[in-house]
Design a protein that fits this description.
This protein is an alpha/beta fold. It has 11 helices and 9 strands. The chain has a single domain, classed as TIM Barrel (Alpha-Beta Barrel). The strands form 2 sheets. Strands 1-2-3-4-5-6-8 form a 7-stranded parallel beta sheet.
């Protein structure tokens, strides 16, 4: 089988770990400065009450049980393999150091066997040097990557969608993460209100310039109980259809660095939580359509990287 024209997470994990890895999503009950009043209330406009996570802790399932249940699900899979303990919900370094240590210790019984990597999602403006110290110590035992939301590379837009951090803060967080030997994964959303196709290009260029090892990108969705839901019902938000998203995604991937790993190409949500679109594209369909579009163009990941990074004359 011919390799794809872009670097996928599955292929990369096979290269690095000798097997595909499965994420076990964990909710540690962390918070966010956009919700607790430190910066604001209500969160980012697209973020639901679970902080883009599972809501398992609020439902009464403690962290240790979440991990046990997740690992049991992985073990039942046809292509069962090792797992990534993925601390997903909210901003996981926006806690005391004692709490961060306590949260990570839940992985202790499984290190090097069922769990072979840690992934910690957070915001670039809540990543302290002391939290990086903690993560760097864990990185001596198993690979740790830090997932940092950029979403779009426009400071004004980041205010409008209530992210309330800057592009410079993201770039600094990636630099500090990589300086500790940790892997950085940057997040992007295509189709944010007012960002447009040019915004998608700028975001790819920033992600490439920072050198973050991984990239997660997905289409904008409208979830229930979000500010974005009100905007969408008021006709203020236009979502990308699948064909347009794949077209923009091809532009985006062409401008990434050739070695960056695409951890995700789309997102989905369960029907009770999803307002629009009526259905989200399947991961395999997006992968195949992206491959076909790049083949049609005669390009691949990184084809426009050098030109995009060249200084303006």
């Amino acid at each position: 089988m011919e390799p794809l024209r872009f670097r996928t997470f599955g292929a990369w994990t096979r290269e690095r770990f000798g097997a595909p890895l499965h994420r076990v999503s964990l909710d540690a009950g962390s918070q966010c400065p956009n919700r607790d009043g430190s910066k604001g209330y209500g969160g980012c406009v697209y973020c639901d009450v679970e902080g883009s996570g599972t809501g398992a802790l609020r439902a009464g399932e403690d962290l240790a049980q979440q991990l046990r249940s997740g690992l049991a699900r992985v073990a039942r899979r046809k292509n069962a393999g090792p797992a990534i303990a993925y601390f997903q919900s909210y901003s996981n370094t926006y806690v005391s150091l004692e709490r961060l240590e306590e949260v990570l210790r839940v992985v202790e019984p499984y290190v090097g066997r069922e769990v072979v990597a840690l992934s910690v999602a957070t915001r670039p403006d809540t990543l302290s040097e002391s939290s990086l110290d903690v993560l760097a110590r864990w990185n001596e035992r198993l690979p740790v990557w830090v997932e940092l939301g950029l979403e779009c590379a426009d400071d004004q837009r980041l205010v409008e969608i209530h992210r309330l951090h800057t592009v410079a803060e993201f770039e600094d967080a990636v630099r500090r993460t990589r300086a500790r030997g940790l892997l950085a994964v940057g997040h992007a959303i295509l189709g944010l209100p007012g960002d447009g196709r040019d915004g998608a290009l700028r975001t790819a260029e920033v992600l490439a310039r920072t050198g973050c090892e991984g990239v997660k990108v997905h289409q904008l969705m409208v979830l229930r109980k979000t500010v974005l839901e009100h905007w969408w019902r008021d006709g203020k938000v236009e979502l990308l259809d699948e064909a347009t998203y794949v077209d923009w995604l091809a532009d985006f991937v062409e401008r990434l660095a050739p070695e960056q790993v695409l951890h995700r190409l789309q997102a989905d949500a369960e029907p009770p939580h999803l307002v629009a679109p009526a259905a989200t594209p399947h991961a395999t369909a997006v992968r195949d359509r992206l491959e076909a579009e790049l083949a049609r163009r005669g390009t691949r990941q990184g084809s426009r990287y050098a030109a995009a990074q060249a200084p303006a004359t």
